[in-house]
Amino acid sequence: MPTVPIPAPAPASLRRPLARAVPALVLAFAAALCLPTAATAATAPAARALAAPATASATAPLATPAATPSTGAPAPTGHLETNYGNPATALPPISRPDTPHCTVTAMQHDFANSYGQPFTGTLAPPASCSGPWNKVVLDWSGSVAGRQYDRLAGVWIGGSEVLRTSTPEPDPAGISWHVDQDLTSFIPLLRTPQPLVVDLGNVVNSTYTGVYHMTLTVTYYQADRHHPAATTADQVLPVSQSTTAAGWWTLTKGQTATSTLTFPRNLTSAHLQLYARGGGCEEFWYSNVPDDYAAAHPSWGLCGGGTYREVQVLVDGRLAGTVQPFPAIYTGGISPMMWRPIPSIDAFRTQPYDVDLTPFAGTLTDGKPHTVTLVPPAGISDGWTLDGSLFLNTDPLRAQTGGAVTTDTITAAPQVATTETAQADGGELITASTGRDWTVAGYVDTSRGRITTRLDHHAEYRNSDTISGQGQNQVTSQQDSGWTVTSTDRGHGTPEQARSSWSYPIDVTSTYVPGSDADSYLARGQVTVARHLVDETRRGNGRWHEQASTDDRMSSQGVLQRQSGTMVQADGSSDEHYVGRTADGGCYDHELASDHGYLTLDRLRSCH
Questions:
Q1: Strand partners for 394
Q2: Per-residue pLDDT tens for 362-401?
Q3: Cα(164)–Cα(507) distance, rounded to whole angstroms?
Q4: 422-437 burial, b if ≥16 CB within 10 A, otherwise e?
Q5: Mean pLDDT estimate for the chain
Q6: What digits encode the pLDDT tens for the residues 221-279?
Q7: Which three-class secondary structure state does DSSP give residue 470?
Q8: How many CB atoms lie within 10 A of CB 196?
Q9: Is the pLDDT score of 341 beyond 70?
Q10: Can you give the pLDDT at residue 608?
Q11: Strands 160-166 and 384-394
Q12: Which candidate, 164, 139, 92, places its Cα nearest to that of 577?
């Protein structure tokens, strides 16, 4: 799994699915618009606390303290955050070479009532920067004001998704934000004109007024003596459902998505870049409960399916790889004030997963159609949005390669051990644990001889979830980690090995208390979440050498309270600390902190 790109050492001189588990006020709004929702119960559990935009606007007046929804006692006098600063993340900006370059404005578009109506166009390389290129960078810039949901968005070039992101929820005065993305690996597509599709599903009416004003540019950086042409795969193939419309599939329980593809006859390697994110009841999958527990408490609005999630990839119907996804949180998730102005990890620049399919490469060179199938997690209670791109390398000296898969021990699904234990306070402690160990190996006969690739994968998973107050209080702790070792034997010398390790810990404490009417509630949440990635290499049984690492940690808390449509409390604070390193000395250490909707710390540290 690649780490987030890190700038080189300094020289000396968003369609977010509308289906969600939501409280009654949002269900009523969705019903009025005939929109799908993820829950039909009148009350959502704590972990799904609030889906409605939290803007304190003319439709939600501020007032002096009122009665709390649950007890009728005077509400606490809390901070009333109306506006907030422009969103910011601790992620490193994409590094850019100091070479001649050209910027193409690929899109300027307003997304208003845009469900099922993506922007479509064509992206062509600029004549004055025709290549070769050292780097290509996408810039995604937006602004919005008023009141609106967070939305899921995607960008496709030639059918390949090159950016997945989501939007911030606006304030009345308006906000603007920017996301950059490295497109260099897609240069094989970018050399010729390609269909461009941008999907950001949105709904605008008298209550939800925010229109997303978006600009997309692509900058092509020419290569020169000091900045050579980028090394990329020879070919990129989309694994998506369209080149002229949004390419992702939204899959529910039991569904799969298959692309039928013809591969180069001289194929030597194949890597799948996979995007995967849950929506609706699957947005907070790490706090979902077993189906039997949800069925036993139908009035609590709980989402089922348990907590373990795994996306699978099949080649010609045969299991080829698995991915355990990162727990991404949208900017309206749990309690919206938590993410103002610092969004959660993966909210803006969603990181795809790498699935090495090279052990299967030798079986794909016969010139016949072959299938790549994406399988969402088993037992899910709502949709997962999946698609990807294949990066292919070929043999320059041989017209056709061939080979075979020699080992494949991936089983259909791991056994998840689940317990449900009643607590003294009337709550329930639910635990889940499992693990994954598998090996896939295969060879390709090339002009340089037989090359054998072996993948050894190990994963560990455990989750504890305490639910009390009839689903209104929830405390979740999840540890999800593992590694994949790729061994490449070229038939001479010592095999090369690469190890990619990952860990995604998350802890969530959340409360949702409904009030006496549909527009009264208290939503409170605390989250700590992190993504740890390490890439290492070695030869034979030697010592592992770190090539790159990412340590991105975030903690956040927030509260939102309304009484009969009047905002009583609206406040949040957060901290994000990102540290990334590369073997050549690159290092990036950035920490942000915020309170009451504005940054209180923005610190870049020197690191070694």
A1: 267
A2: 999 999 999 999 999 999 999 999 999 999 999 999 999 9
A3: 24
A4: eeeeebbebbbbbebe
A5: 89
A6: 999 999 999 999 999 999 999 999 999 999 999 999 999 999 999 999 999 999 999 99
A7: coil
A8: 23
A9: yes
A10: 67
A11: unpaired
A12: 92
H helix or E strand, kind and range, residue 475 = strand 473-489
Cα four-point dihedral sign 537, 539, 540, 546: negative
Two tokens, residue 491? 């038939």
Cα 122 to Cα 220: distance, rounded to the nearest angstrom: 16
* DSSP codes of every residue in 387-435: EEEEEEEE-TT-S--EEEEEEE---S-PPPEEEEEE-TTS-EEEEEEEE
User: Under a CB-based contact definition with an 8 Å cutoff, are residues 500 and 534 in contact?
Assistant: yes
* pLDDT computed for residue 302 by the predictor: 93
Residue 104 contacts residue 123 (beta carbons within 8 Å): yes
Written as one letter, the residue type at 260 is T
pLDDT of residue 493: 82
Measured CA distances, 30 to 36, 151, 206, 380 (Å) = 7, 15, 14, 22
**498-510 b/e (C-beta count within 10 Å ≥ 16 → b):** bbbbbbbbbbbbb
Among 431, 314, 446, 430, which Cα is nearest to 370's? 314
For residue 186, give Cα distances in angstroms to 45, 135, 195, 234, 295: 42, 10, 14, 10, 46
Q: Is the peptide bond before 132 cis (omega within 30 degrees of 0)?
A: yes
Specify the DSSP element, H or E, that contains 293: helix 291-296
Q: What is the DSSP string of 504-560?
A: --EEEEEEEEE-SSTT-EEEEEEEEEEEEEEEEEEETTS--EEEEEEEEEEEEEEEE
Q: What is the largest CA-CA distance in the chain?
A: 80
- Check: CB of residue 261 under 8 Å from CB of residue 238: no
Strand, helix or coil for residue 188:
helix
* pLDDT at residue 156 tops 90: yes
Phi first, then psi: give them for residue 575, nearest 5 degrees: -150, 135
Q: What average pLDDT score do residues 136-153 get?
A: 97
Q: What is the three-class DSSP state of 53? A: coil
Say how far apart CA 306 and CA 528 lie, in whole Å.
21
Amino acid at 152: L
Distance CA(121)–CA(24), nearest Å, equals 39
Can you give the pLDDT at residue 3?
42
Query: Higher confidence at residue 515 or residue 36?
Result: 515
**Across residues 492-509, what is the average pLDDT?**
95
Burial class of residue 102, CB neighbours in 10 A (0-12, 13-18, 19+): middle
Q: DSSP letter for 324, please.
A: P
What distance in Å separates the CA atoms of residue 123 and residue 217, rounded to the nearest whole number?
10
Task: Give the pair of three-digit tokens for residue 43.
Answer: 């009350």
pLDDT higher than threshold 90 for residue 64: no
Which phi and psi (to 5°) does residue 41 adopt?
Answer: -75, 155
Q: Please name which of 159, 151, 164, 165 lies closest in space to residue 123, comparing C-alpha atoms.
A: 159
Residue whose token pair is 């490193």: 92
Contact 103, 219 (CB under 8 A): yes
**Strand ranges, E, within 112-211:** 119-123, 133-144, 152-157, 160-166, 175-182, 194-200
Least confident of 71-80, 427-436, 503-512: 71-80
Single pTM value for the model: 0.89
Q: Are 547 and 535 in contact (CB under 8 A)?
A: yes
Structural element, H or E, at residue 189? helix 187-190
